[in-house]
């Protein structure tokens, strides 16, 4: 009985090889060797797979075409979750989201891992920002388009005080302080001179 199993064990790899060779070299193993209908069906199947993959990877295509800073992360999300509607929509929204690309290349968030891109925010200097220093500004009527000289002087002083406060608190550097202060002083000198 032991000899019977030993002989079967020796023949087993040969049987597997011969069956694989028969399947691989068979006439019916290749789609192109059958009739025209089966080759047309195979072509339609391949075309359908290509169309489905193109639709699934629309968010990735959009991200790469728009040079999105997070295009590789969008690709990963799209590859991992693109088969689900939620993952596909999330990747598409992320790819279509407007991104501010700065000149210095720091397009990421404050965390530095560049997961979320900061949109540009316009900062408006408001006289009411500095509440602890109350400067009485004369109220000009709305009918007078030219404010009085005192009003512009008070605004200039207030703006310079706010810049000084920002500089002393460390919010802006010395170069930024000088760059922001120069146009205010220039405007003041031209008005008084």
Q: Report the C-alpha radius of gyration, rounded.
A: 36 Å
Q: Sheet with the most strands? A: none
Count of the separate structural domains:
2
Distance between the termini: 118 Å
What is the string of SSEs from the N terminus onward? HHHHHHH
Main structural class? mainly alpha
Nearest-integer average pLDDT: 72
Counting DSSP H or I runs of 4 or more residues, the number of helices is 7
Let me know the number of strands. Answer: 0
Helix content: 55-70%
Low-confidence stretches: 119-123, 133-145
Strand content: under 5%
Shape: rod-shaped
Pfam family, one: SHOCT
InterPro entries: Phage_imm, SHOCT
Keywords: Membrane, Transmembrane, Transmembrane helix
Transmembrane segments: 40-65, 72-96
Summarize the structure.
By secondary structure, the protein is an all-alpha fold. The chain has helices at residues 2-24, 36-56, 58-65, 71-81, 85-96, 149-169, 174-192.
How would you describe what is shown here?
Helices cover 60% and strands 0% of the residues. The chain is an all-alpha fold and 193 residues long. It has two domains: 34-122, no CATH class; 127-192, no CATH class. Helix 3 packs parallel to helix 5 (85-96). The longest helix has 23 residues, at 2-24. The chain crosses the membrane at residues 40-65, 72-96.
Task: Write the topology of this structure.
Layout: H1 2-24, H2 36-56, H3 58-65, H4 71-81, H5 85-96, H6 149-169, H7 174-192
Helix pairs in contact: 3-4, 3-5, 4-5, 6-7
């Amino acid at each position: 009985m032991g000899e019977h199993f030993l002989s079967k064990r020796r023949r087993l790899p040969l049987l597997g090889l011969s069956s694989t060779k028969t399947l691989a070299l068979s006439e019916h193993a290749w789609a192109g060797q059958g009739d025209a209908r089966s080759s047309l069906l195979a072509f339609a199947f391949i075309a359908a797979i290509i169309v489905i993959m193109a639709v699934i990877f629309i968010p990735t295509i959009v991200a790469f075409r728009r040079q999105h800073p997070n295009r590789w992360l969008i690709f990963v999300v799209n590859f991992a979750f693109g088969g689900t509607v939620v993952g596909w929509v999330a990747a598409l929204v992320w790819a279509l989201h407007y991104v501010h690309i700065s000149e210095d290349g720091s397009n990421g968030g404050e965390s530095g891992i560049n997961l979320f891109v900061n949109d540009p925010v316009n900062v408006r200097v408001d006289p009411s920002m500095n509440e602890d220093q109350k400067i009485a500004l004369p109220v000009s009527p709305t009918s007078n388009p030219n404010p009085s000289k005192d009003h512009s002087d008070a605004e200039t002083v207030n703006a310079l005080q706010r810049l000084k406060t920002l500089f002393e608190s460390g919010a802006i550097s010395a170069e930024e302080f000088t760059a922001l202060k120069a146009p205010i002083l220039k405007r003041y000198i031209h008005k008084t001179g």
